[in-house]
Design brief:
Biased composition (Pro residues): 34-50
Strand content: under 5%
Distance between the termini: 130 Å
Number of strands: 0
Oligomer: single chain
Largest sheet: none
Region (Disordered): 15-68
Length: 262
């Protein structure tokens, strides 16, 4: 045995029981035992069911009436029909155009009465200037009258819609004992569009009296009569529609737009 083999035998002795200096011992690998999973806890038991029979109480099933729907600017404006303001605007435009043109023609003839033309060319320019002034004055007067009439009519329609919303809000409230009694006995069925029209007419009459400095009582009488008549026509229309639907036996959807002429 040579020196190289002896050195190898001294260095590698895997089966030696006693450690020797300078000799590397084999490392023993150990496998750890797996940890068992935790035992799941049992689900909670349901609460015991009482054998007492269920009793309905008025505190559970009696609810107060729902509050009225909240009024928003969008819903308020969507309930207004532009039919009456547009018709008033058209009538005011036509009336102002005719009145303004007629007045402008008379004014032009009065201003030029002392210098009437004597030649054909003079009459041509005379009529040309007259027609120009008549047309221009008629357009200005028509626009002014149409805007004013349409504005006042639109203001009445807005007031009528506001009165209608206020009446519905007031009728839907049952907070007081008198209101509950009135609803139960049908004491408020006589209220309708005619009351809304009267209130709107009176409001517009007061504003017009303050704006144009006109007699207040006279305008109040005219506004009350005109507004009440318009509202009564709306009530008559609704009554005829309900009567026709009752005869036909078919409920047809209809528009509830405020201020509609149909």
């Amino acid at each position: 045995m040579n020196s190289a083999e002896r050195a190898v035998m001294v260095w590698w002795k895997p089966f030696s029981s006693s450690p020797q200096p300078g000799v590397q011992q084999p490392v023993e690998l150990r496998q750890e035992s797996p940890v068992p999973p935790p035992t799941p806890s049992p689900p909670p038991s349901p609460p015991p069911v009482s054998a007492t029979p269920f009793r309905s109480s008025p505190e559970i099933f009696s609810h107060p009436p729902p509050p009225p729907a909240t009024l928003t600017p969008t819903s308020f404006l969507s309930s207004i029909s532009p039919t009456i303001p547009l018709v008033s605007l058209s009538l005011g435009l036509a009336s102002g155009l005719y009145t303004g043109a007629s007045r402008a023609g008379l004014v032009f003839m009065a201003e030029n009465a002392h210098r009437r033309p004597e030649t054909v060319q003079g009459w041509y320019f005379y009529n040309k200037t007259k027609n120009y002034k008549v047309l221009l004055s008629g357009i200005k007067a028509g626009i002014s009258t149409g805007v004013r009439l349409g504005g006042w009519t639109g203001l009445w329609v807005l007031a009528d819609a506001g009165a209608l919303e206020a009446r519905e809000q007031w009728l839907s409230s049952t907070s007081s004992a008198w209101m509950a009694y009135a609803h139960q006995n049908g004491m408020l069925g006589w209220l309708g569009h005619w009351t809304d029209g009267m209130v709107a007419g009176q409001a517009v009459a007061v504003l017009a009296s303050a704006a144009y400095r006109l007699p207040t009582m006279r305008l109040l009488a005219i506004g009350t009569l005109a507004g009440g008549t318009t509202g009564a026509l709306q009530d008559l229309r609704d009554y005829l529609i309900r009567k026709k639907e009752a005869q036909d036996g078919v409920s047809q959807p209809r528009s509830h737009l405020v201020g509609s002429a149909t």
